[in-house]
Amino acid sequence: MIGIAAALLGAVPTHGIAPRASLASLYVRARAAQVAGDTAAANAGFTALLAADPGNTVFADRAYRQAVTAGDIPLALRAARMLDARQALPSDGYALLALEQIRARNWTKAGEATERLAKDRLFGFFAPYFRAWIAVGSRKGDPLALAQAAQGASIGGNYYAEQRTLLLIATGRAEQARAERGGDISGRLPAMVTGPDEGLAVLLAHFSSDLSRQQLSPLGLIIGRLASYAAPDFSPAWLLLAEQLRTMHRPDLALAAIDHIPAADPLAANAQAMRIGLLDDSGKRDAALAEALGAARREGAAPQDWARVGDLYLAMERPADAVGAYARAVAAADTAKLAPDLMWPLLLQQGAALNAAGDWPAAKVALDRAYAIAPGEAVVLNQVGYSYIEHKENIDRAAAMIEQASKLQPDDAAITDSLGWVLFLRGKSAEAVPLLERAAASSPGEPTINEHLGDAYWSLGRLFEARYAWRAALITAEDKDRGRISSKIDVGPSGATAAP
């Protein structure tokens, strides 16, 4: 790493501000912090590098990328200006500099920055909308005519109808917007959009979301950061950003994003649910549980709030506590006469908790009720059928349920595993193995599937392959299962080590 840094440093002037050795060391430390996800250290390191050698485009580019990812906008702007001065500004940087001028209400400079953005091959399609919102802010020009330039464009056209509606509302023509939308101007259109900041935040947030759905999360994150910068008080942008950061396994940054949504915000409940999940992702389950309990006990809490508490109790291997939480969730759902599509997931969760707590008779009641409500749901068919097979009851009926689930979702690894496991339990190992192999190939990190495959291999005398599958299961197995799987690897399976 030091050799690479030294080579990079040798390619650009250091202006004698600091010895190359010290700059190389600082660069390596900043990059190491960046790779390790230590946001504060990485930001501090790149800030120091920019101060030490402001002419170094390598430092500036790394600083810019780190700052945008971490949400350090002052550092991102500083690096962007340095890169811009040396004609090395990345495409999203043009949008950032234009937003800076829009937020400052410097409409002349905002227009100049937007014209530079228009020439960019990647994000130039933003320009008609930037021009339109600048016209709204400056009260010069026709915003609708300016935005219309995006209509029909391959990418920008996807956002035209929404942006036109927002522009109409922001310019006092809500009735026209309502008429054009057939009376509906709600849905994805937030009521708090009143001017350029929020209007562009909606544009950027929706484009960011579309990028993420196309498996372009890093680029989606960059645009999501631009959305939150455009309107720092616009909570939908922060919530979307937190979701993207969670997907990218950065719960620290996601929690920081969620903190921008105040308790009185209309999206506060969504933000709290996200925060609980992020705390759980971070291994802070006690903190997640405390917050989940607080949410469940508040006035007006939804049944799902107690279900979330139950989920955490199950993850903490406290099934008896989970049973109580799910009971409250189901009782609240019954009182509220929850719709069937919201009711059956609660009953499945309740059944799983009761089963884990050792109360199979009560679990059957909950599971059968879920099946009665949603007999055509693959998830219901699979969980109810598998639970009966686990207790060796109603095997034929359970097998039929799982077969039906497989017809509904033939590519679902969990259902394919259940189907193969049923065949194995009925003494049809040769038929079971191809199904279990398919499930394992589809979900190679799932310990239950690999353990089932190992058991099936062993029954056919394929001992080497069985141990290989069990070792794969052991990698991701929970602590409570590791002893059983290790015993099979050592001496083979027995009645005491049968897979669940």
What does this structure look like?
73% of the residues lie in helices and 0% in strands. The protein has helices spanning 2-10, 20-36, 39-52, 57-70, 73-85, 91-103, 107-118, 127-138, 143-147, 160-170, 174-180, 196-213, 217-230, 235-247, 251-258, 268-281, 285-297, 303-315, 319-336, 340-356, 360-373, 378-390, 395-408, 413-425, 429-442, 447-459, 463-476, 479-491. The longest helix is centred in the middle third of the chain and has 18 residues, at 196-213.
> From the alpha-carbon coordinates, what is the Rg to the nearest angstrom?
28 Å
Counting DSSP H or I runs of 4 or more residues, the number of helices is 28
The helix-strand sequence is: HHHHHHHHHHHHHHHHHHHHHHHHHHHH
3D shape: globular
Secondary structural class? mainly alpha
Biggest sheet, in brief?
none
Strand content: under 5%
Total DSSP E strands = 0
Mean pLDDT: 90
What brief labels describe this structure?
disordered N terminus; single chain; mainly alpha; globular; 500 residues
Summarize the structure.
The chain is 73% helix and 0% strand. It has helices at residues 2-10, 20-36, 39-52, 57-70, 73-85, 91-103, 107-118, 127-138, 143-147, 160-170, 174-180, 196-213, 217-230, 235-247, 251-258, 268-281, 285-297, 303-315, 319-336, 340-356, 360-373, 378-390, 395-408, 413-425, 429-442, 447-459, 463-476, 479-491. The protein is mainly alpha-helical.
